[in-house]
Amino acid sequence: MSDPAGYPLQHRIEVEFVEADVEMAFTLVDLAQAEAGAGDRALAGHVIRNAENVVGDIEARLARLGASARMPFVLLVEELRREIEQAKQHTSGTDRMAI
Question: Considering its fold, how many domains does the chain have in total?
């Protein structure tokens, strides 16, 4: 998700950080679910909290960008929040997934 040439360097750097943070947060959710599946719910919960912290970082970075730069990330952040909530349910043992 690259910016057109001509955007200030700081803007492009912020966008790159957001992209990296989004990828990292989704990876953390996957790791948390894997740990929960392996029976280590405590570690899974810790990893989910890290993912939530990354979402906070993403939102702080997005707040510094203009509305047009934020738009491509809105749906990704919403999906990330949904996946975090699902992972929380899975790690807490309250999910009702059939095995």
Answer: 1
